[in-house]
Amino acid sequence: MSGPARTVSDPWNRVTLRTFYRYRMTPPRLIATDLDGTLIRDDHSLSARTADALEVVRAAGIGIVAVTARPPRVFEELSALPHLLDAAICVNGAMVVATGTGGVLRASAIPVPSARKTAAELRAAIPDITFGVETGREVVAEAVYRRVDRVADRRVILPTLDEVFARADPILKLLAHCPGRHADTLLTVARGIDAPGVEFSHSGGRGLLEISAAGVTKAEALAWYCRSIGVSAADVVAFGDMPNDVPMLVWAGTSYAMGGAHPEAVAAATGRTTGNEDHGVARVLERLLAP
């Protein structure tokens, strides 16, 4: 096909016809998908249509990896999902887990001095911000930290932040919560402070900023996993909806932002699909693997 690329007429699928037909002839080797706001519905269930599409993908010999901000314990509640996955990249890339065995393939922690400095700088900029630490097993938080996760909430509350840093090991993700502020506002402030050694992002949680070790992103962890199984970025199709998905959407050869996605995710993706309540991931998978 020659000449400028044209878009598919489906308004939700802005991937080029050139890319569309290439995948019709050569299916991807790996599907990488965010969970909340992407693969699963707002009630944290997996629709029958999406489950069926994932089964077809697996039957075709294509790998499936969940790439999520959530810790591995989320799969204790999302019980319909683990058997459909080859692996899970959790905590925004800080953990890579074999979902079949629960074994940790890799973990990347924030050094304690970096976590302390980041918390101090953020609190100086936003006095009412509070902190917790995700260790992969639980959240260890100071007493004033009030955020409760809707799924897999498991926490230890300690009187002070100093005690949190003394106990929490490893510091896979520093959670900064300020319920009176939008996550985008927190991210803007964070990007302006002096905090070497960390990465800032958010996954849409109101008033929640998520902080990882420097260089640790969904994309970096996905690239590491793909190298381990001999898959290139060009052979990956990724799905996401929030700023923490942006590096992955840029890295993957083909990527889709969900309906209602954050503007940064829309700008990063090569295509769009419908929302998580309208089987957005399933619609693309059905199209890519149609006979």
TrEMBL record:
Cite the SUPFAM superfamilies for this sequence.
HAD-like
The domain of life is: Bacteria
Q: What is this protein called?
A: Cof subfamily protein (Haloacid dehalogenase superfamily)/HAD superfamily hydrolase (TIGR01484 family)
Which Gene3D superfamilies does this one have? 3.30.1240.10, HAD superfamily/HAD-like
Molecular-function GO terms, alphabetical: magnesium ion binding; phosphatase activity
Q: Which InterPro entries match?
A: HAD-like_sf, HAD-SF_hydro_IIB, HAD_sf
Q: Which GO terms describe its cellular component?
A: cytosol
